[in-house]
């Protein structure tokens, strides 16, 4: 069902960062490819590899100032899966991962519901939510929601899981931690909120022990893997992997950082950002990526300048927050509230025409990936998705609002209050599930909005959790109503 929506929309969709992830995966696999070249063909060394032809030492130094912001492990997955079967295979894998997590939650939360409710659940999510579009999106965004869904099952229904299911859910949590750094903050925050709800409902915290242990284990392993990867790069090149100055750019664009920087530079303080203090600095995307010397910062800086900006970023952010604490907090709150409402599609319905025609993009891996799926026509106009941003703003925002309203009304219903008063276990777990999903949605908006910026992709990647919650609640109470009228769950 999820892949059917991808097919109706046209094909899997790529994004600018897809190219970076693919290149990082290819970089990791080069030693294996070279070693197997006598058996599978292809280049036997980097010197004879056409994909490495433009990688001069200076170019590689520039790339290493950005690589810490991207997961090499999602890059490895993307490169390996796409090489075997193209982006359709990646879409199939992502759809299967999400389906597995949702099925585990449905089976645990509504054990008496009939199989038709599972089909109804997936049909509803396919038609009303952003989930299928992220399944067909060649980026790590889908794994955020899938990981949260898996964590919810481990936290609330561990006694209803088979060992194989438990292991599969752990792998999903681990993938979410390994594929994007913000996922750890969101998952940990949501689990802490669930612990508070447990205390409020006088439930022992030890029931969350399995989920907490698995989340901690996944986070520790992903940190160790990242450290090992960065250490290998440092050992081979003598350089440290770095990330763009997302936090500094956020504070500059919001205003407090801009005010502080110009005052500090006037006092003669040695911030590397003082080179750019007279530029507008009012748009984080321009600050990070613009190549325009009148607007850009990171995008126009040399490798040495980027390194100094990165080394100073933590001190700069702390200095801005100390100087303007209320303004910084107000901007973060504003960004979080704004992000909370961005539950529609943007990047996952982007037309690849630009990447296929722009001189700087048309010879990249991203163009190869698109063309391996199908030809886009003489003028590269035939691969545009059929669903667009404007349609999604109406369609997905409306269904999200209806699902949220239904869930809140259902939680406030008399039968729920009565069942909680009787300490009904099924109802208690369902209320805790709702609390977990709602808190995760809010925390995700706060984390991504405050740390990076207000972009629809960051919230839409997990907005499908709320329609899923509404459908799960319908399945649970539908099964109860069926039992009340003398039918069993199997009959339903």
How would you explain this protein's 3D organization?
With 492 residues, the protein is mainly alpha-helical. Among the domains are: 86-234 and 387-484, no CATH class; 246-335, no CATH class. The chain contains 22 helices and no strands. It has helices at residues 2-9, 16-40, 57-64, 72-109, 115-128, 131-135, 142-156, 163-179, 181-200, 209-237, 246-254, 256-266, 284-289, 303-323, 325-340, 353-357, 365-373, 389-411, 414-421, 425-451, 456-460, 465-484. Helix 4 crosses helix 17 and helix 8 (163-179) crosses helix 10. The longest helix has 38 residues, at 72-109. Mean pLDDT is 91; it is low at 481-492.
What is the number of helical segments per DSSP (H or I, 4+ residues)? 22
- How many DSSP-defined strands? 0
Stretches where pLDDT is under 50 for at least 5 consecutive residues are: 481-492
Largest sheet: none
Assign an overall shape. Answer: globular
End-to-end span in angstroms? 22 Å
Give the overall average pLDDT: 91
């Amino acid at each position: 069902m999820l892949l059917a929506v991808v097919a109706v929309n046209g094909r899997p969709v790529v994004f600018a960062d897809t190219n970076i992830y693919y290149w990082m995966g290819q970089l990791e696999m080069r030693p294996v490819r070279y070693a197997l070249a006598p058996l599978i063909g292809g280049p036997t060394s980097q010197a004879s590899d056409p994909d490495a032809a433009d990688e001069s030492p200076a170019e590689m130094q520039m790339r290493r100032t950005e690589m810490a912001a991207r997961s090499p492990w999602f890059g490895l997955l993307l490169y390996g899966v796409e090489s075997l079967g193209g982006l359709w295979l990646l879409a199939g894998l992502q759809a299967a991962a999400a389906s597995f997590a949702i099925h585990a939650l449905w089976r645990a939360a509504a054990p008496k519901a009939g199989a038709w409710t599972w089909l109804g659940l997936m049909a509803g999510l396919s038609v009303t939510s952003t989930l299928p579009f992220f399944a067909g999106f060649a980026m790590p965004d889908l794994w955020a929601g899938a990981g949260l869904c898996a964590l919810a099952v481990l936290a609330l229904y561990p006694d209803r899981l088979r060992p194989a299911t438990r292991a599969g859910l752990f792998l999903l949590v681990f993938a979410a931690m390994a594929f994007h750094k913000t996922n750890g903050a969101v998952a940990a925050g949501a689990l802490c909120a669930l612990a508070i709800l447990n205390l409020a409902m006088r439930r022992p915290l030890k029931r969350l022990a399995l989920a907490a242990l698995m989340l901690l284990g996944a986070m520790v392993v992903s940190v160790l893997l990242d450290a090992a990867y960065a250490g290998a790069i440092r050992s081979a090149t003598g350089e440290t992997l770095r990330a763009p100055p997302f936090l500094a750019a956020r504070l500059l664009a919001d205003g407090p950082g801009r005010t502080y920087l110009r005052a500090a530079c006037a006092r003669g303080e040695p911030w590397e950002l003082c080179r750019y203090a007279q530029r507008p600095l009012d748009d984080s995307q321009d600050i990070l990526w613009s190549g325009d010397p009148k607007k850009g910062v990171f995008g126009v800086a040399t490798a040495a300048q980027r390194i100094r900006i990165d080394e100073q970023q933590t001190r700069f952010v702390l200095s801005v927050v100390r100087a303007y604490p209320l303004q910084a907090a107000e901007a973060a709150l504003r960004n979080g509230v704004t992000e909370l409402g961005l539950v529609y599609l943007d990047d996952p319905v982007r037309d690849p025409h630009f990447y296929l025609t722009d001189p700087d993009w048309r010879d990249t891996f991203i163009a190869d990936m698109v063309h391996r799926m199908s030809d886009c026509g003489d003028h590269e106009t035939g691969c545009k998705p059929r669903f667009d941003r404007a349609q999604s703003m109406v369609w997905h925002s409306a269904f999200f609002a209806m699902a949220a309203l239904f869930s809140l009304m259902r939680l406030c219903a008399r039968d729920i209050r009565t069942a909680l008063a009787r300490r009904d276990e099924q109802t208690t777990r369902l209320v805790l599930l709702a609390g977990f999903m709602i808190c995760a949605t809010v925390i995700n908006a706060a984390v991504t909005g405050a740390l990076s910026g207000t972009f629809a992709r960051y919230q839409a990647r997990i907005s499908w959790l709320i329609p899923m919650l509404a459908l799960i609640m319908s399945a649970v109470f539908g099964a109860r109503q069926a039992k009340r009228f003398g039918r069993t769950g199997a009959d339903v």
